[in-house]
Amino acid sequence: MALDSVLTTLSACGVVSVSLKVVQIKSYKLGLLYYAIVAAILVYVSVYAIWFCKGYQLQDQLIGLTSLKVKGVAYRYENNQVQVWDAQDVVYPAKEANALFVTTNYLSTPNQVRSSNCSTDIKCTTNSDCEQMKLVNELGLLNGVCGNGTCQMYAWCPPESDEDQNVDNLLSGIPDFTVFVHQTVKSVKYNFSTSNFERDTVLGQNLFKISDMISKYDQVAHNGSIIAVSIHWDCNLDKRGGEQCQRSAPSFIPINDENQGYNFRYANYFYKDSNTRSRDLYKVWGLRFVFLLSGTAGKFNIVPLIVNLGSGLALVSIAAVVSDLIALYLLPGKKFYNQVKYELIHGASHHEKEANERTRLVPQSSRQASMEDMAPQEPYVSDSVYFEDK
């Protein structure tokens, strides 16, 4: 009795088992919709997922390297004289993996030497006004000496000028420089490698002008900029010959803000005057191109084909779900469809219990009469056919 009470309570709380029920609705509208969705899913799986996206291939990520060569001549006027800057002057460092820097503007501080009494802009009257070893504008350290009304410091002298936004130092001719792009890619899984090496340089394919690599050169030439160059390789190893790999056209994407710019410093060292080490310091602004190489190599494999077919065919169930939603919530006969779609029944034990209860309540004489009525009748035989009363 206790168990029956618990089961009754669980049933009252809605603890039920759900079983699928198939209902066939003879409606040409729902039928057309169902098969249209099925057809669309099959087209998506076969055309897009398998054929267009090469779902029949096992893909491998390509690795590669980009090497760059720059040619061109720039110039600027200095003291009414033409100062020439070739590719060796403009490009720094000369060789860099997957990247390139082209100088567009610069500030030079020539013939610097190490000094212990380099002048500063800090005013003073006594040595106590100059705190020893204090950092000064990241140029040097105070030596604790006040000389000629200003503090002195340990630094490379003469120090760099604060006028680092001198427009007169812009280099002319940089947009006409050309960049040769040589890329080599490799698939480790398939032991396959290729490159874009061609005997002839073709403008727009493996040769680019700076003016084509950045559209707003005049706006970024003063402060510099960082540009990402994205090139994607797609290699189909089921093909043979030169059509195996397709290379996308480069995408030139400015990374930073125009006002932020890009600059750095470097120095050229040399000796002069009794082996005194000297240097020419350059602060340069320019265009930094970072080449981002990506790609895949694919070859036929039965495993991804089966996986894509299986996952695609599983989408066919969407057609039944959509048809059910429309029938149950949108069609005029939605109430009727809900009644035949969802049916609540009790378990077999519940029905047996109800039958026993009804039997207990029926009088004995009625049960005997009923059982006599239900007893099988004696068969009879005719001359030719055997019958049984029912």
Task: Give the SSE layout.
Elements: H1 2-12, H2 28-52, E1 57-61, E2 63-71, E3 73-78, E4 81-86, H3 87-90, E5 99-123, E6 135-136, E7 140-147, E8 150-157, E9 178-187, E10 192-195, E11 207-209, H4 210-213, H5 217-220, E12 225-236, E13 245-247, E14 251-254, E15 263-272, E16 276-300, H6 302-314, H7 317-329, H8 334-341, H9 348-361, H10 364-374, E17 380-381, E18 386-387
Parallel strand pairs: 12-16
Antiparallel strand pairs: 1-16, 2-9, 3-4, 5-8, 5-16, 6-7, 7-8, 9-10, 9-11, 12-13, 12-14, 15-16, 17-18
Helix pairs in contact: 2-6, 2-7, 7-8
Keywords: Ion channel, Ion transport, Ligand-gated ion channel, Membrane, Transmembrane, Transmembrane helix, Transport, Vacuole
Transmembrane segments: 31-53, 285-307, 313-331
GO cellular component, one term: plasma membrane
What is the CATH level 1 assignment of the largest domain? Mainly Beta
**Main sheet overview:** 10 strands, mixed
Q: Could you say which structural class the secondary elements and strand pairing correspond to?
A: alpha+beta
CATH H-level homologous superfamily name of the largest domain: atp-gated p2x4 ion channel domain
| Whole-number mean pLDDT | 83
User: With helices defined by DSSP (H or I, 4 residues minimum), what is the helix count?
Assistant: 10
How many domains in all?
2
Please provide the count of β strands: 18
InterPro entries: P2X_extracellular_dom_sf, P2X_purnocptor, P2X_receptor
Family: Belongs to the P2X receptor family.
Keywords: Ion channel, Ion transport, Ligand-gated ion channel, Membrane, Transmembrane, Transmembrane helix, Transport, Vacuole
Main location: membrane
